[in-house]
Protein: Xanthine dehydrogenase molybdenum binding subunit apoprotein
Amino acid sequence: MNHPEMPNLMPETATNADTGWRAVGVSRPHESAELHVLGQATYTDDIPELQGTLHAALGLSSKAHARILALDLAPVRAMPGVVAVLTAADIPGTNDCGPIIHDDPILVTDTVQYIGQPVFIVVADTHTNARRAARQANVTYEELPAIITPQQAKAAASYVLPPMRLERGDAQAAFERAPHVVKGELFVGGQEQFYLEGQIAYAIPKENRGMLVQCSTQHPSEMQHVVAHALGLHSHHVQVECRRMGGGFGGKESQSALWACGAALAAAHLKRPVKLRADRDDDMLVTGKRHCFWYEYEAGYDDEGRIVAARVDMTLRAGYSADLSGPVATRAVCHFDNCYYLSDVDIRAACGRTNTQSNTAFRGFGGPQGAIAIEYVIDEIARNLGKDALDIRTLNYYGIDERNQTPYGQVVAGNVLPELTAQLERSSEYRTRRAAIDAYNATSPVLKKGLALTPLKFGIAFNVTHLNQAGALVHVYVDGSVLVNHGGTEMGQGVNTKVMQVVAHELGVDLAHVRITATDTTKVSNTSATAASTGADLNGKAAQDAARRIRDRLAAFAVTLLGGEAADVQFHDDAVHVNGGSLPFVEVVQKAYLKRVQLWSDGFYATPNLSWDAKSMNGNPFSYYAYGAAVSEVVVDTLTGEWKLLRADALYDAGRSLNPALDIGQVEGAFIQGMGWLTTEQLWWNAAGKLMTHAPSTYKIPGISDCPEDFRVQLFDQPNVVDSIHRSKAVGEPPLLLPFSVFFAIRDAISAVAGHRVNPPLNAPATSEEILRAIDAVTENIASKMGSVPIFQASR
Ligand code: MTE
Ligand code: HPA
Ligand code: MOS
Structure:
């Protein structure tokens, strides 16, 4: 076969097509599963420390917004074990680690902008001594007015970026014609990433100003850039390596930068290895989270429940700097439609500047926040019309041949939602269970059950077009073993396993012969973050390209041994087959080496057909859409606000899954993580602007006991309509939207208190307190409508 110049346009090759041999599309354990279980997987903090290693800690601001009048660090320097204290004045290069806009100081110069902002770095002989010393500074502040909430930010027109707006059709005229209008406000809280391994970087000075940074990061190339800038070096001076993270969830896409820079600054200053590791409280106090959103919404609809006009104004809590808030807001705008055709729509988003942590990427990246607003609207329309919300949802679904263009202009191709929804409706026995729940609620005054089916559509690609590229490096050694390196990072999601499978598939070798190495900026350069769920899509294609280049050389060589045509050579079962004969893969490799055939290759991939005009918010930002839906059934105790998820059924469109076991794991994990976001995980800042929920004692992530006993996750098996890697689809983020069904099942149960006649005003997270507040609002509303009605006797 000829050299594939355009790997992304290549059809599935003949390699293994007819033989049934496959390394992709089969469930394989995570490449590090055994090491994880044995405690032998090396995380950054497990790397053996070099002699002379020092430990750093950050001195944090205790005011939300204040000028520093005096900074007395003498007491810090006097603490046991302290070797050095660094401030902004000690930064040889640029004091900035912002990913896009350069408004993110590594260390404060004169004005602190949130409680937890790093003011200085203390370096000591031990981690504990560094942390103890970090608390001893005497800082004199002159306090300035602080903005904490998105509402305050909007009132003060305090934004980190100009507000954005996407309009289609004529919303105003459509509202004037609309038979009914629903209007309101909604608040959806943020979320802490709560990766199990906290932020960490270990910087090791190398000869001639070089710097090696071992860093837990989703974005080694960006860490390389920010460290080079901070040290006043070039990128070629800085090497960043990451074998794996103990979770990232977006929290290490940009915000590993502070830790990488902090460790590197101290290491360069002292010419000694320095480790900077955050303990959980500092990690939560310092780093940004999922953006909370405040929505003002309005929708017009007809008698059947079809949305004819929609308007939403979303205000995000961006925090003190821009970080990734712009792309997050853009993704929210591009997911407000979720699965629904909105003919006349006006979508606004503004990134409120607040004196809080700078909010950042978190699984879904604004997509979940955009989509939940329209789901809230649909839920209200259904209740107002006395219909089942599922019927309003499907009525508004994007069409296949018409009503199929998003407000930003992309056509919704390969829309499997009608089929997928019907399959889930059947398999979950939605209608029968709805009737059973109504019957239950009619005789159950205190415990109320609720049910909801919610769908998702999620656009796959970075919404910044140039980021959609990747590289890989594949080595075949003379003993036939294969080593793979690519630009993606492993955070538990299984990108390495999938990329290994792709390479094994191309070379026709058993997965056991393929080994993966740490992500390293000296191997593949200029990589994008492993984010936007594109890790396997991009790096899988790049590694496939590299493997195909090697395979093509081996094929050309094999016909010199076996005869036949290079185009007919097949690689499978650890052997090379052509012309009726076959040779073991390792033998072909050894012979090729002796004939001086290059046995390694790079590979590259750039996603085709993407376009985006940020100004008009129009284009084709996504390569394709992933779809899914879930049904959740809950029971709520209306006296305590406690609830339980009784059963969840999820159906997710992973295309032709590369590895169904890993994909099901991702769907389960995203479901439970999203459920935590919408129910128990409450971030709370006090009036002074201090985040008080900075540890698991006050911040409740789901535990195993919160998982439903009856949890049925399935993949919807259909090939991707675009030529993605083996026609698979991304799985990392989209399933985070599946637990919308939990939130709306809780809302359904609450509304049962008053016979589903009023819309419970339920914000997220739907904590027990929030549930009780919503129940009170419903019963008061019904009492004022009906005269005094005994609270729990109303029924549908
Ligand atoms: N799964 C695990 N176990 N740990 C993680 O940190 N991050 C999620 C998702 N799944 C994450 C995860 C996020 S935010 C993204 S963008 C994707 O994985 C990134 O990996 P992928 O693109 O290879 O799917
Ligand atoms: N997801 C994650 N990170 C990003 C994106 C995105 O869509 N766009 C730019 N950075
Ligand atoms: Mo994921 S939020 O794109 O890192």
Notes: The first helix runs from residue 33 to 38. The chain has four domains: 11-30+469-606, 44-145+193-286, 147-191+289-408, 428-456+625-796. The mean pLDDT is 96. The radius of gyration is 28 Å.
